[in-house]
Predict the 3D structure of the following.
Amino acid sequence: MTTTYALLLRGINVGGHRKVPMPELRSLLEGLGHRDVKTYLQSGNAVFTAEADQPDETVRETIEAAIEKHFGFRVDCLVRDHAYLAAVAADCPYPAADLEGKQLHAFYLSGPVDEDRFAGLDRESFAPESFALGDRVVYLYAPDGLGRSKLGEALSRPALFKGVTVTARNWNTVRKLVEMTG
């Protein structure tokens, strides 16, 4: 039995730093025994099929170690299966079908967080931008896009997600990863 996963790499290929060429990433994943490997964009999205007898965390740890060995630097990763990705899309509290992909983002998290973590954010001061929590995800509505988002900037502060790996994807990528893993 196999499972199709999405691999989400954090903080690569930004401004010429921490370069992970997608052909090399595909080869690395294939070298680990994964099949049907595909990448999406240059921002660290891959889809692959793996044996289902390994826990997601074992798959993630193996990939992170292989990336560090091959590229010479550590890259935090998240590994998510189709069911999880589809649930994130289905549970979105915003009208995703009515928005442009750049207006809605999913901040995927390595573990759960609760509302207490965001107590210091004055949500009203960011209106019309807003965010909502889901299952290991924070949904961000940013009508002018992430690049101009003051709330997105606030949510990107490392102290806010201390102890949790977080990587954001726009809604176009969220949809594409659901499709590619399905």
About this structure: Strands lie at 2-9, 35-40, 45-51, 77-81, 104-109, 130-134, 137-141, 166-170. The longest helix spans residues 56-71. The CA atoms of residues 47 and 180 lie 7 Å apart. The helical segments are 22-31, 56-71, 82-90, 150-155, 171-181.
